[in-house]
Sequence to fold (327 residues):
Amino acid sequence: MDKEKIFRLFKMLGADIILRTQKKNTVTVLSLHRVSPENDFFWNPLKPATFEKIIQHLKKYYTIISFAEINEINAKPAKPFLVLSFDDGYYDFYEYALPLLKKYKVPSNHNIVNKCAAGNYIIWTQRMNCIFSHCRENDIDLKIEFANRTACRNDFKNDWMQFYLDTYRTMLQLPAAERMPIIEHLENSLAFSAEVKMMNWQQVNECAANDVEIGCHTYSHDVLSTIKSDAVLRDEIVLAANELRSHLKKDINILALPNGKDNPAILKFSEEAGIEYILNVDDKINKWKDVKAKGIKNIYRINMVEEPMASMILRTELLHSKLKRYV
Fold:
């Protein structure tokens, strides 16, 4: 039996209902990125129709809130709390997601990369993704020169996805001074560059005026764990948060960690930046008492991907992470 049939069976048996009953006094935070009709083999966006269906489902079974509402809420809700949290600032959020959020009167959080809003800068993960998509679609024999090895598809039995995941994990370990020249060399040798539209400051402001709570996703979306310079790390967090405040004329107290990578100095600079919530992706839910505690809170998020609806619903209820313990 394939995975889709298995998750449909779990859904038919009411696994989502059983798991949701265990969410009393918790906050579920979903981590989302792109909402677009585009297809992408390596990182498929949520389709607008899928996103609309999941909003309809979540409104029925959850009390959807923003982070700003957490400190205002004292009563226990009939339905568990949930936050919709987006990262990166892709234009397709403005084009496809925002109209649906407005239609269903649902608040959300969106964490912006300043460099993208300032000039359509494309983050390194998206550039790498576009390189792999270009090579796969055109059957190009991609070779990547790392400092200690050369990687190609043949190393992974011609499995494009395994090649991609290995490259991504390797890139996460490299500082920008080593990572970016590899990406630029590949783009130059292929005579190819990524073309992805990001929201500009005007569109970010429009989102903020329509119940989208803006947070910081650092200045350039670097891998924070690879940054050794305090000055650079400070710019990624403190400068970015202050610049967001200047553009939006609103308080900024949310920091989403790019690629889920931490750094021992993050807490220090988050305090300086006036951050209250640090968002991770760890496929866990948050206890209400922890989210309401004083000081900076580390918030877990559940990463959402385009997949059949039964699987998305069960992922929201953490079935996937529970099954990992047994497979």
